[in-house]
UniProtKB/TrEMBL annotation:
This is p53 apoptosis effector related to PMP-22. InterPro entries: P53_induced (IPR015664), PMP22/EMP/MP20/Claudin (IPR004031). It is a multi-pass membrane protein. It is found in: Cell junction, Desmosome; Cell membrane; Cytoplasm.
Length: 196
């Protein structure tokens, strides 16, 4: 006997959990100083979303310049930050939506639409930053976009995946709510004479 059914109701917290993971990665990206770093020794340059720091090869002290003095720096920070704030709002809405016994699936689809907006804002910020940084900030030595910048992209990829799932979830409303009885497939001896 084979049982065909979807056990999504028990897994309903997976999507809010993924959004929480995207928030954690977004916090790391916003707070991290590793958006751009020197690739090899001597480590003379590092940058975050907010500032760029350099030092001489023999100097131990970093001298930092705020990227908020540049229009593109404010634009990159603002777009990524707006996306992050909308992501936190979507997380709260998802927790509320999945806490209610009777899910409102149009509400869930709206969260998916908002997550696409989050992804658009984050992508804009993540593209503006390296393009304008390499054009307007003098780079010293060999540099690479590093771990904090990678966390920004990881957060964006998770958001895009969650957006698709939130938009497609209403298509399986009955399965998620348990309104469909499982279908049992079996064969009886009368219908399968070849089993004798």
């Amino acid at each position: 006997m084979v049982v065909c059914g979807l056990a999504c109701w028990r897994c309903r917290w997976l999507l809010p959990l993924l959004l929480g993971l995207a928030i954690i990665m977004g916090i790391i990206a916003l707070a991290g100083r590793g958006w751009l770093e020197s690739e090899s020794d001597p480590y003379v340059q590092q940058a975050s979303l907010w500032e760029s720091c350099t030092r001489g090869e023999e100097d131990l002290n970093w001298s930092c310049v705020s990227l908020m003095d540049y229009g593109w720096g404010r634009a990159a920070a603002a777009t990524y930050l707006v996306g992050f704030v909308i992501l936190v709002i979507c997380f709260a809405l998802a927790v509320i939506a999945f806490s209610i016994e009777i899910l409102r699936f149009n509400f869930v689809r709206g969260i998916g639409g908002l997550l696409f907006v989050v992804a658009a804002f984050q992508i804009i910020g993540l593209v503006i930053y390296p393009v304008k940084f390499t054009e307007e900030i003098p780079l010293m030595g060999d540099n690479m976009f590093s771990w904090a910048y990678g966390f920004g992209w990881a957060s964006t990829v998770v958001v895009i995946g969650c957006a698709f799932f939130f938009c497609c979830l209403p298509n399986w409303e009955d399965e998620v709510l348990g309104n469909i009885k499982p279908t049992y497939y079996y064969s009886s001896p009368e219908r399968a004479p070849y089993l004798n």
